[in-house]
Amino acid sequence: MKVLVRLLLLAGMMSLVACATTEPVASNGSSANFEYDAEGQTLVVSFANGRSYSYAEVPAEVFAELDKAESKGRAYNELVKGKFPSTRVK
Asked: Distance between CA 50 and CA 58 in Å, rounded?
């Protein structure tokens, strides 16, 4: 299950709310799934080829931009890939 973070404006204050969903994402021609842990600021990207990467120190705002992007693959490449410490998980 994936966790998506959406920014909500409540009483003039921004607060982060996590909700569960499943969103396939295209990147470099292959589909991927994103899983975000808001508390640990960790983004896990799992590609259709079986490889998974964990990105550390990803702010919720970056994930929110990724979530709302029309082209998820382009947003991943521009906002995440190579910008945060990463580890191959699988």
From this structure: 22
